[in-house]
Write a structure and sequence with these properties.
This protein has two domains: 63 residues, Rossmann fold (3-Layer(aba) Sandwich); 73 residues, no CATH class. It is built from six helices and five strands, in the order αβαβαααββαβ. Strand 1, helix 2 and strand 2 form a beta-alpha-beta unit. Helix content is 49%, strand content 11%. The strands form two sheets. A three-stranded parallel sheet has the order 1-2-5, covered by helices on one side. It has a two-stranded antiparallel ribbon with strand order 3-4. It is mostly helical. The longest helix is centred in the middle third of the chain and has 19 residues. It is elongated. Helix 4 packs antiparallel against helix 5. Pfam families: 5_nucleotid (PF05761). GO terms for molecular function: 5'-nucleotidase activity; metal ion binding. It comes from Spizella passerina. This is 5NTC nucleotidase.
């Protein structure tokens, strides 16, 4: 466990290569990106806000399911159309329903909104998280139940 210092010194002292170390941090650039790029360490990002996200997803799962169903319905409508089709289906009512469901989902998160989603799209943070962190959780305590052999 290192709090500050040189990553080269840590690797030398432990006699390990970068991939043998799991670095835990709570800052995507200061901790995760730098340790991954400099030493090739595996990374674990602590995202305390994830606990609230999971709570909302669990409590409002019916909204997420409805949004998924609406998306599938739209996909089926457009599945057999091509650029030469002269008829376009009227999807105005579906679009309104998607907007209503998305707005209701967004209101569950408070003024700042979801850290991971904006409407039906991932946020920049979510994209960076998926790109740079090997693992992530709301707390490092989640590791208490995993064997060291992983």
């Amino acid at each position: 466990l290192a709090v500050t210092g040189s990553s080269d010194v840590v690797c030398d002292l432990l006699g390990v290569k970068g991939k043998d170390i799991l670095y835990m941090g709570d800052h995507i650039f200061g901790d995760i990106l730098k340790s991954k790029k400099r030493q090739g360490w595996r990374t674990f990002l602590v995202v305390p806000e994830l606990a609230r996200e999971l709570q909302v997803w669990t409590e409002k799962s019916e909204l997420f399911e409805e949004l998924r169903s609406l998306d599938l319905f739209l996909a089926e409508l457009y599945q057999h159309l091509d650029s030469g089709s002269s008829e376009r289906p009227d999807i105005s009512s579906i679009k309104r329903r998607i907007q209503k469901v998305t707005h209701e989902m967004d209101m569950c998160y408070g003024k700042m909104g979801s850290l991971f989603r904006c409407g039906s799209r991932q946020t920049l943070f979510a994209n960076q998280l998926m790109r740079y962190a090997d693992l992530y959780a709301a707390s490092f305590i989640n590791f208490l139940y995993y064997p060291f052999s992983y």
